[in-house]
Amino acid sequence: MKLILIGLSLTLLLIFGGVFLVSKTNNKASLAGGQNTQVSVDKTSYDWGEIGINDGKVQAEFTLTNAGAASLQLANVSTSCECTTAQIVIEGKASPYFGMHQKSSWTGQVEPGKSAKLIVEFDPAFHGPQGIGQITRQAVVETNDSKQRQLTFVTTANVIK
């Protein structure tokens, strides 16, 4: 009877351990560094100023330009808080919305001389009445530019009643 219980316990441990490992599998896109890729951004920060908690979502837009001679790849977009999402638009085609804990194998490609838009959206009501005051949120985009593998965009606001 003891042997059966030990065997059953080990089997359950292996099953739950396997499920845990599979759920932690990294689903991030892999970008190889490009020798002739160069990303240029118009700005890396945006301040919404004062925004009302019940005034609805606000957006900031950033431009990422391929200043290199080879295709620029953008991937692994994430944000620093669940109240914030980010999306990339390349030649009118929009990526999915990305958030804080999302993993995606999505990769966007920007041809030389072309640009992409990063749209960052913040919901001031997400945290409820406790969300009043100064906020700082980030959106991160990975690139295949070997000199700028990761771009960080910072948004700020003062959320008021």
Automatic annotation (TrEMBL):
Taxonomic superkingdom: Bacteria
Coiled coil: none
A Pfam family of this chain: DUF1573
Signal peptide stretch: none
Full protein name: DUF1573 domain-containing protein
